[in-house]
Model the fold of this input.
Amino acid sequence: MELTNEFQPIRAWAADKGIYAKGDIKTQYLKLMEESGELAEAIIKGDDDEIQDAIGDMVVVLTSIAHFNYTPIEECINSAYGVISKRKGKMINGSFVKNK
Done:
């Protein structure tokens, strides 16, 4: 799998900050939940700048979680898209619900 340039600065930052050397998948997951809470708060408040910031923070943390699972984030995204692109379903109450 070829790594894309978009995620390289995130990986370099995480390595520089010691996340890869001293962190682990569990602490990164907890960080993801913290960022998810910040996203929820921003959505409730309708704060577009904070929504954007929280989404970005979550992508950063997800990149580290993927690293700890020995899977590049690009592979995770491509794998998920490969599955969802073939899904059939319909919109119900503002959410896409896949057929069973």
In short: The chain has a mean pLDDT of 95. The longest strand covers residues 89-92. The longest helix spans residues 25-45.
